[in-house]
UniProtKB/TrEMBL annotation:
Keywords: Cytoplasm, Methyltransferase, rRNA processing, S-adenosyl-L-methionine, Transferase. This is Ribosomal RNA small subunit methyltransferase G. InterPro entries: rRNA_ssu_MeTfrase_G, SAM-dependent_MTases_sf. PANTHER family: S-ADENOSYL-L-METHIONINE-DEPENDENT METHYLTRANSFERASES SUPERFAMILY PROTEIN. GO terms for cellular component: cytosol. The keyword S-adenosyl-L-methionine applies.
């Protein structure tokens, strides 16, 4: 049990929940919405999360790599629109810590449901943009093989530059749309983990990400403090992709923008070959 917003909420389900059961449990609270206030964490509950600064947990080389990433991001941001954030401290708080905060949920969910080790994961960051969270995950977890999937040329140029600049040998940049990569036999259902942050709503993300995940792998979406309605709308899409909701996990992002959550789906069977649909269709006509 975790105390969030004054309510006790079971976020660590031993088996994937049906959406009906999950929504009924949420509805049993006094409010139909999740209230996930950072201030409501008890000392005992916070130990289940990335309770101290994720950045401070890195070694000196990793910290230097993060600083070099931020320097490159802010420099390139003067020439192209990579982020609305303009100050190093804000990048650290809003983007870096937020990215680091999903590592522990990825590891524990994978170990509980997918495999005996989380040290050598094959992970894809869908809609990587400026490399968030993928670049930060690759820095913090050098044993992971990380693919940064991005469709825009300019952003891919930045990603290739920053990967070379900070010396990340465990990263590849792939310029492609998620819908096309999901139908590519070389990538389809080949990843242990797919992650997405600030890309689209859950029912669209499900079709982007889950066809890339192997059966028995997980999809993790970084979301805000109140994802209940979005998750409920995504029920059909997640199930059509062969997956089920595993848990909604509070994460400590150390951000003034409020509590963040990780929505974690477990893929139980192969995705039908008709998914993902043609490029643009998932966004225009969500399942």
């Amino acid at each position: 049990m975790l105390l969030c917003g004054g309510r006790r909420f079971n976020i660590l389900a031993p088996t994937p929940l049906s959406f009906g059961t999950f929504i009924k449990r949420l509805a049993s609270t006094k409010s139909s919405k999740l209230s996930l206030s950072t201030k409501s964490f008890t000392a005992s509950a916070s130990t289940k999360f990335f309770s101290s600064s994720g950045f401070e947990a890195l070694n000196s080389r990793q910290k230097e790599q993060v600083h070099r990433y931020i320097d490159s991001l802010l420099e390139w941001n003067q020439r192209m629109n990579l982020t609305a954030v303009k100050e190093e401290s804000e990048v650290m708080e809003r983007h870096v810590e937020d990215s680091l905060s999903i590592i522990e949920p990825i590891r524990t969910s994978y170990l509980s449901h997918c495999g005996p080790s989380s040290e050598n994961l094959n992970l894809v960051d869908v809609g990587s943009g400026a490399g968030l969270p993928g670049v930060i995950l690759a820095i913090a977890s050098p044993g992971w093989k990380v693919t940064l999937l991005e469709s825009m040329n300019k952003r891919c140029s930045f990603l290739e530059h920053v990967v070379s600049e900070i010396g990340l040998s465990n990263v590849q940049v792939k310029r492609e749309r998620a819908e096309k990569l999901g139908q590519d036999v070389n990538f389809r259902e080949s990843f242990d983990v797919a992650v997405a942050r600030a890309v689209a709503e859950m029912r669209i993300l499900a079709e982007y990400c889950l066809p890339l995940v192997r059966t028995g792998g997980i999809f993790v979406a970084a979301k805000g403090h109140d994802p209940q309605e979005e998750v409920q709308r995504a029920e059909r899409a997640i199930q059509l992709m062969g997956a089920s909701l595993l848990q909604i996990r509070c994460v400590d992002s150390h951000s003034k923008h409020g509590q963040r959550t990780a929505i974690i789906c477990l893929k139980g069977k192969p995705t039908s070959k008709k998914y993902p649909r043609d490029p643009g269709t998932p966004a225009k006509d969500p399942l």
